[in-house]
UniProtKB/TrEMBL annotation:
It comes from Medicago truncatula (Barrel medic). Pfam families: F-box. Residues 21-67 form the F-box domain. PANTHER family: ESTS AU081301(E20138), F-BOX DOMAIN-CONTAINING PROTEIN. SMART domains: FBOX. This is F-box plant-like protein. It comes from the Eukaryota. The lineage of its organism: Eukaryota, Viridiplantae, Streptophyta, Embryophyta, Tracheophyta. The gene is 25490461.
Length: 335
């Protein structure tokens, strides 16, 4: 019996010794990957500070692309991506972008992240074989995510606006440069100055921000490829600017019936006409801003200095986009 007890005791000690030596890195690669996938960005950053092996995994674009899409996918578009590439190339140097390393960048990123996350990076005592510092590639998705999260990177996007202006009730969307404020979970916007002092707006909530639906400069006319498909009842956005030197904004409207149609649904031939009636139903009936007509066959910028200039049209197919516009309508406006 004593021999059996000694054998069992020896086995238990061996198991405990093995368990003491087990670490996170001893897990199968697939299990470790599943664990890291479930970590939020702040925890991934903390995990990356433990050792070189975990750092190589935690800074992987594979994990950070998922976080980018989840948090920033609705506000980051192609224009923002180009701006980030230009920002990296101009501030870090083309050579740094090419070779993928920048001296001291790793610790700088953590120093920027600590204040708003309350994080502490465990550096080690210098004797740990895992305590190996390496620079983070400047083009890494993690770098981009943290640049936006900390507000260091101003990115181009569009801001929905609803206000009473000198033209009446305005329901529009304009291009701006945005910076994220993690303390309030809102955005700061810088609008083009148009020759005056730069306009700014702070405390903008997420629901008022979107990525530009078309990848063009706000000063360029959008080439409308939907004109032949427009029918009464379709939801659209149309470019509008006050003066020729101003950038375009986007106004929300619907395709209406021509006067000759008399809103006769059974005998409507509006879609066969060369003219398309655009209605802005958030304006009161009788307002000169309530309607405008554009040429379906040969549409270019149309308007004048008194009423402004109407540009390209994009047809809205997404019910979510339509609902966003409708949420901003005045409470008295009925569809």
């Amino acid at each position: 019996m004593s021999m059996v007890r000694k054998s069992l005791s020896s086995r238990v000690e061996n198991v405990e010794e093995i368990e003491d030596k087990l670490s996170l890195l001893d897990l199968p690669e697939l299990i470790l990957e599943c664990i890291l996938e479930k970590l939020p960005p702040s925890s991934l950053c903390q995990m990356a500070g433990i050792c070189h092996s975990l750092r190589e995994r935690c800074v992987s674009d594979y994990f950070w692309e998922r976080h980018m899409k989840k948090k920033w996918g609705g506000v980051i578009g192609q224009a923002a991506y180009r701006e980030w590439k230009w920002h990296v190339a101009s501030n870090m140097g083309v050579g740094s972008l090419k070779h993928g390393k920048q001296s001291g960048l790793w610790m700088k990123i953590f120093s920027l992240l600590w204040p708003f996350q309350g994080m502490k990076l465990k550096v080690g005592d210098g004797n740990d074989s895992c305590n190996h510092r390496s620079s983070l590639p400047v083009e890494a998705v993690m770098n981009w995510y943290l640049a936006i999260e900390t507000g260091r990177f101003w990115f181009p996007a569009q801001v929905y606006n609803r206000e009473n202006g000198h033209l009446g009730f305005l329901l529009s969307c304009y291009d701006a440069e945005l910076s994220y404020d993690s303390r309030t979970n809102t955005f700061l916007a810088r609008y083009p100055s148009h020759g005056r002092r730069e306009a700014r707006e702070c405390g903008i909530p997420w629901e008022r921000i979107r990525a530009p639906p078309v990848d063009i400069s706000p000063h360029d006319l959008h080439i409308s490829n939907c004109l032949n498909d427009l029918h009464p009842g379709n939801h659209i956005e149309i470019q509008w600017r006050r003066k020729k030197e101003f950038p375009y904004g986007w106004w929300y409207g619907v395709v209406g019936h021509l006067e000759s149609c008399n809103n006769n649904e059974n005998h409507c031939r509006c879609h066969n006409s060369d003219s398309v009636m655009i209605e802005f139903n958030h304006y009161t009936p009788g307002s000169r801003w309530r309607q405008t007509s554009i040429n379906r066959k040969d549409h270019r910028e149309e308007g004048n200095e008194a009423d402004g200039f109407y540009g390209g049209i994009r047809k809205i197919e997404s019910l979510n986009e339509i609902s966003i516009w409708k949420r901003m309508w005045p409470s008295k406006v009925l569809d």
